[in-house]
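Lab notebook, bench 4. Still working through the backlog of constructs that have no structural model yet. Next entry is a single chain of 752 residues. Request: give me the structure tokens for it.
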Amino acid sequence: MQDEESLQIWEGSEGDSFPMMEMNARETEASEQWDYVLVAGPCTQRDPRQARRQQQFLEELEGKGFQYKVIEDQEKVFFGIRADSRVFALYRTLLTEPEGPVPRVEPARPVPILATTRIRIVNFVLNSKMANGDTLEDLVREGVFETRFALHKGPEALVKTWAQWRSMVHKQPIDAIRDYFGEKVALYFAWLGWYTYMLVPAAAVGLIVFLSGFALFEASQISKEICEAHHILLCPRGDNSRRYQRLSDTCTFAKLTHLFDNEGTVLFAIFMALWATVFLEIWKRQRARVVLHWDLYGWDEDQEEMALELINCPNYQLRPHQHSYLRSTVILILSLFMVCLMIGMAHVLVVYRVLAAALLNSALPFLEKQVTTAVVVTGALVHYVTIVVMTKINKCVALKLCDFEKPRTFSERERKFTIKFFTLQFFTHFSSLIYIAFILGRINGHPGNLVLLAGQWKLEECHLSGCMMDLFLQMAIIMGLKQTLSNCMEYLGPWLAHKCRLMRVKRGCRSRDPELRDWEHNYCLNPVNTFSLFDEFMEMMIQYGFTTVFVAAFPLAPLLALFSNLVEIRLDAIKMVRLRQRLVPRKAKDIGTWLQVLETIGVLAVIANGMVIAFTSEFIPRVVYKYHYGPCRQGAHPAVDCLTGYVNHSLSVFYTKDFQDPVRIEGSENVTECRYRDYRSAQDYHLSGQFWVLLAVRLAFLILFEHIALCIKLIAAWFVPDVPQAVKNKVLEEKYQRLREKLCSRPKSTDV
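Model written out:
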């Protein structure tokens, strides 16, 4: 990655969009001498006590085999940090096992240590506790140092081939990413690229299912009956509604609903369950090939952690695994409390929608037909704002719970934090969708006996064309906002922040020292932290959840995710190479806990889509009517559509004389009955036999659907091995060769 004949990373800092300045080979060679840079305020403004603590920290680093260099400009003091070669020799010794015979001829020169390994070791030592118990993070928090960062060193190849918008359709240079940012970042982009590639068939099938609804846009028997039902009056939707509405007024929404609530929905949901399994299984195969190519198949994370600890402190004592039932119980209770809080936030949104519907009905009675749509749209916007706020709260809570659990290592802490944070984020993002899909409109009672909130406001109902329309709108708005606004802020935020930092530095005199100039430009980049890559993973996991969990209600979700990911890959590349300081490389041979998160989402997707088809869509009522109540129950008739009469069958009758105050309803003088969406008896308004038949069929379908989908997932997982046979054979062959070399290197025994 560090080509001495090429230019340094900074291109066109004077007038281009990004802070890149061309540097000659001499400047590149000078900047590559240092691995890390610490920054502090000017000497004239430093407290003597802080100066002493700085000096103590640097002297202790010196005692551990580090060198440092101090350069001061008009505003800051920069400390270049470099590790001595003996530190890396110790690292190599600790992690190298003598698998074969020692070569007879020593190499002419030692194999150079990788730049990613250098930075990882230096970062680990810098962030370890010193003799007085302080860490570098403590010193930064207390103002002894302002910040610290690893130096960008020659990613010009990545800039030209990867971090450019014109490279959007090109293959990612995963090996080059690994050489510069380490294995963990490279595996993230390898997974994201594979996920985007696999979205192509999912998006195509989803688009076909959605477009197939257009064939039913005019030809659907149900839409025809609704559009021609001028004589059917719908009951007023609560006390705030004062008039009846013709069923034919919902004609347009009924046609739109059939775009995504048709027979293809079931097949698409099963397809997505199979797709999620195949995607994960083939990704495991891809990962195995990549890890073998990187020679990390036998790498052990715990051994790496212990080696770094021993390099930093030769007297390091192993910290054993711990488990406390008391701490686990407290964490479980607190986690359940937070989940209940997320569910409570969903109820707050319910209250908002109820009050908003009441206010809009009273303030704008002439827009009564559009009130439901307006409430759904504004409710989705409020939910999006809630997601933004609760994300910050969830992160703080998850961190506190992890600290309380006392994990043994940083990697273990990251795994535990991932599980806790994702659980909270899942309920934050999907609580309102769960409410709309399975609760909305099902506890409202019936005309004449409505369930009221605080005894005054009627609970909200689904759209007149069904709850699938509400679920579709909610998903489209939330996912659309997350993919557009989030991506815009993800790019504009770092870009504007960097511009401001660059302008502040440019106000001072530009240093003539090429090394200092390089450090200053690195300093102007946006800082990174331990959550920089984690946040990217979490964003993709939530998107994956939207793409699979409720995809039956929003078949365009894979298409939207595909377009978003094409932009996301370039945004992340530009941020990491051009707008942010260099991420500290981390070694890894898989994506860690995120794989378990993906598998969990896959199982939840099967359950959720089965419940959406069974209880939210009109698929089951249509099938039951077609074969049990409709004109085709004795056999199909070519001249008669099997769904003829379905609309009248699915609406219950309510007699207007049973209203508590029929005088308040406009036009009630000549109306003796009205209709509403439910299955109730016209005599006593109790649930009819048809309701219980439907419920039984819904439950039977749900059980059958989930078992079929899960069986397909299991068969697909068995059919596609996690590790390719070529990889297994390669590992087996290497083991065999090592054993033969050991056997041949042993001295032969002689007979006495």
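Notes after review: Residues 622-719 form one domain. The chain is about 60% helix and 5% strand. Flag for follow-up if needed.
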